[in-house]
Automatic annotation (TrEMBL):
<feature type="domain" description="ACT">
    <location>
        <begin position="295"/>
        <end position="372"/>
    </location>
</feature>
<dbReference type="GO" id="GO:0004106">
    <property type="term" value="F:chorismate mutase activity"/>
</dbReference>
<dbReference type="GO" id="GO:0005737">
    <property type="term" value="C:cytoplasm"/>
</dbReference>
<feature type="binding site">
    <location>
        <position position="7"/>
    </location>
    <ligand>
        <name>substrate</name>
    </ligand>
</feature>
<feature type="binding site">
    <location>
        <position position="35"/>
    </location>
    <ligand>
        <name>substrate</name>
    </ligand>
</feature>
<dbReference type="InterPro" id="IPR045865">
    <property type="entry name" value="ACT-like_dom_sf"/>
</dbReference>
<dbReference type="Pfam" id="PF00800">
    <property type="entry name" value="PDT"/>
</dbReference>
<dbReference type="InterPro" id="IPR010952">
    <property type="entry name" value="CM_P_1"/>
</dbReference>
<feature type="binding site">
    <location>
        <position position="44"/>
    </location>
    <ligand>
        <name>substrate</name>
    </ligand>
</feature>
<feature type="domain" description="Chorismate mutase">
    <location>
        <begin position="1"/>
        <end position="88"/>
    </location>
</feature>
<dbReference type="InterPro" id="IPR001086">
    <property type="entry name" value="Preph_deHydtase"/>
</dbReference>
<protein>
    <recommendedName>
        <fullName>Bifunctional chorismate mutase/prephenate dehydratase</fullName>
        <ecNumber>4.2.1.51</ecNumber>
        <ecNumber>5.4.99.5</ecNumber>
    </recommendedName>
</protein>
<dbReference type="GO" id="GO:0046417">
    <property type="term" value="P:chorismate metabolic process"/>
</dbReference>
<comment type="pathway">
    <text>Amino-acid biosynthesis; L-phenylalanine biosynthesis; phenylpyruvate from prephenate: step 1/1.</text>
</comment>
<keyword id="KW-0057">Aromatic amino acid biosynthesis</keyword>
<dbReference type="InterPro" id="IPR008242">
    <property type="entry name" value="Chor_mutase/pphenate_deHydtase"/>
</dbReference>
<comment type="pathway">
    <text>Metabolic intermediate biosynthesis; prephenate biosynthesis; prephenate from chorismate: step 1/1.</text>
</comment>
Length: 383
């Protein structure tokens, strides 16, 4: 067969695959309805196990190895679970309106832009993008009613917690209503014709610079230009029209600005992933069918063992902690506010009791929000 003919057949097969994936998604959404009616949880790992075992068996005579089938179905099932969660949540809170105005850092092509797209395609028919130049501006856009939601990066596997966002959460009246993780693949991006040997200036966001610090150490002769977002870095390179100026950011984002990849995988950690939170003016309830996270801040005071006592309250109520972070309290040198993520629904009896006790034994507790957990840990099978 001729190359062109084979490619026509490949494209045709891909189209059929897309059609089947779309049909599968629609079926998953119908499953969500059925589960809601029967009061069943969305995730059913026993069913996933059975499905994977059977698909691995069916794949063998077709020449599809177990690793390939498993990898593919992890992606498909993660999508299925997240689609179902978004649907159930939308019904509970009436939140999936036709139009959502969302504030995020940067413009088209920034990492926050892609995270926003990923989160809201499951939830809104139309997204109105409100690009901002700082985390403060993003929070204000929602506080003043110019935006319905804000998407904020909160931590990254290479650079750790994003302190500025933690500090904003201490003072805002907004609630956390969602989370998502997004892989961050830093590339060196330049105008077509750029030669790596001639670069003199790199434009990037300070977080990006922190995440690529090992790589940047090897380029001591190059000037670093701090930018408000990766999209801002791309725009500066486009406007500079100078082949010695490059940006660090995502490949897809850079391509929107006419930039090409000069280097990949620049982050210190191979698996460079950011976790984003979604905040809104109104807190939400999380459906019982969905695993929930609750985030709260507390000030324990400085007496010996105060933090241990607070954490023991969680232990006594069987509540698992996902994250514990401390941040200074402005105006009170050397005193710390603790941020705690727990894997629990705010409406659970155990969580209500734990919060009552924490209110009693600490100086201050504030719940920042309860939201669906988007950690869909892949189901493993023995092959
Ligand atoms: O069969 C179900 O219960 C579904 O919700 C569908 C499905 C899937 O996509 O196959 C998704 C989530 C469950 O954890 C198990 C399976």
């Amino acid at each position: 067969m001729e190359l062109d003919q084979i490619r026509i057949e490949i494209s045709d097969t891909d189209q059929q695959l897309l059609g089947l994936l779309s049909k599968r998604r629609a079926l998953a959404l119908a499953v969500a309805e059925a589960k809601l009616a029967q009061n069943k949880p969305i995730r059913d790992q026993k069913r996933e196990q059975e499905l994977l075992v059977s698909l691995i068996e069916k794949g063998k005579p077709l020449g599809l190895d177990a690793g390939y089938v498993t990898k593919l179905y992890h992606v498909i099932i993660e999508d299925s679970v997240l689609q179902q969660q978004a649907k159930v949540q939308g019904q509970l809170n009436g939140e999936n309106g036709p139009v959502c105005r969302v504030a995020f850092l940067g413009r088209q092509g920034s990492y926050s832009y892609w995270a926003t797209q990923k989160y809201f395609t499951r939830r809104a028919e139309k997204l109105i993008e409100i690009g901002c130049d700082s985390f403060n501006e993003i929070v204000q856009a929602v506080e003043t009613g110019h935006a319905d939601y804000a998407v904020l990066p909160i931590e990254n596997t290479s650079s750790g917690s994003i302190n500025e966002v933690f500090d904003l959460l201490q003072h805002t009246r907004l609630s956390i209503v969602g989370e998502l993780t997004h892989p961050i693949k830093h590339c060196l991006m330049g105008l077509p014709g750029t030669n790596l040997a001639n670069i003199r200036q790199i434009c990037a966001h300070p977080q990006v610079i922190a995440q690529c610090s090992n790589y940047l150490q090897s380029l001591s002769q190059v000037k670093i230009e701090y930018c408000e977002a990766s999209s801002d870095a791309f725009e500066r390179v486009r406007q500079a029209k100078d082949l010695s100026v490059v940006a660090i950011g995502g490949e897809e984002g850079g391509a929107l600005y006419g930039l090409e990849v000069l280097g990949r995988d620049l982050a210190n950690q191979k698996d460079n992933v950011s976790r984003f939170i979604v905040v809104a003016r109104k807190a939400i309830a999380v459906a019982k069918a969905i695993p929930a996270k609750t985030t709260f801040i507390m000030y324990t005071g400085q007496q010996p063992g105060a933090l241990v006592d607070a954490l023991l309250v969680l232990k006594q109520h069987g509540i698992s902690m996902g994250k514990l972070e401390s941040r200074p309290i402005p105006g009170n040198p050397w005193e710390e506010m603790f941020y705690v993520d727990v894997l629990a629904n705010l409406e659970d009896y155990a969580m209500t009791r734990a919060l009552d006790e924490l209110n009693r034994i600490t100086r201050f507790v504030k719940v920042l929000g309860c939201y669906p957990s988007e950690d869909v840990s892949p189901t493993q099978v023995q092959s």
